[in-house]
Each structure stands twice: as structure tokens, then as C-alpha cells.
Amino acid sequence: MQKIMKTTAILFAGALLFTGCASNGGNDGGSTAAADECETVRVAVRDISNGAQNAVITGTEQAAVLEKLDGYEQRLDDLATEYADDEDISAAIATLQEKVTAAEDYAKTLPTAPDENFEADADAQAAVTGDIQAASITVTQACEGE
User: Fold this and answer.
1) What whole-number distance in Å separates Cα of residue 110 and Cα of residue 8?
2) What is the DSSP letter of 140?
3) What is the 3-state secondary structure of 24-50?
4) Helix axes 30-58, 87-107, angle to 10 degrees
């Protein structure tokens, strides 16, 4: 039993090394740092984009949706500040910020109080969420240099 566990542990460690998941403690160079930065940007933008889209799709009360979108705008401001030295990423983040602002314009059409009979404009929702999604993809592409 102990031999099986030891063999399994060795195989697992080897798999980690083979896939690059384990760190050797050395410096992997600038390309790894750039890839890590891109991953950080990609994850942040994906989270913001998904949250903003969900707020638009599920929101039925103006104040609640505006509050959520304002939070996402603040996160985009922070991200823009962090990557201000990269013109491509900054420009792409600015475009995403514009799309979130447009989502706020949509949110201003929602009722100010809960209304059980309210039906959101599906076309407007689709346009706003599609624009946010497209802008978030642009940020990722700018980071990856595509």
C-alpha cells in the first residue's frame, strides 16, 4: 500500500512538472510575467463583463442595476489606472468603460420601484450585453497582442 502511494505521489509530481504547474523557483523570464499579467487582466475583465451583463439581464429596478454597474465602472477605473502605461490595453479598457456607461443609460429606462408587470426590452438588453461582451474580448486581445 505504501509503495502504491509513493508511486502515485511521484507520478503526480512528474505530471505537475510536465504541465508546468509546479514552480522550480527560478526566473522564467519576461514572457511568463507578461502571460501572468494578461491572465490577471483577462480574469478581471471577464468578471466585470459577466457581472455587468448579468446586472442588465436580471435587473428590474433602476437603482439596484445602477449601483451594480457603478461598482463595475469603479473596478474598470482601477484596472485602467493599473495598466495606464500600456496604450493598447488602456484603449481597450476605455472602450469597455464606454459600454458599461451605455448599460447605465439602459438601466435608467428601468422602473424606479419594483413592478411585477414590467417587461424589459429584450432587444435593448441584447444590444447592451453584446457590446459589453465584444469590448471585453477586445481587452483580452489587446493584452495578448492579437
Assistant:
1) 57
2) H
3) CCCCCCHHHHHHHHHHHHHHHHHHHHH
4) 10
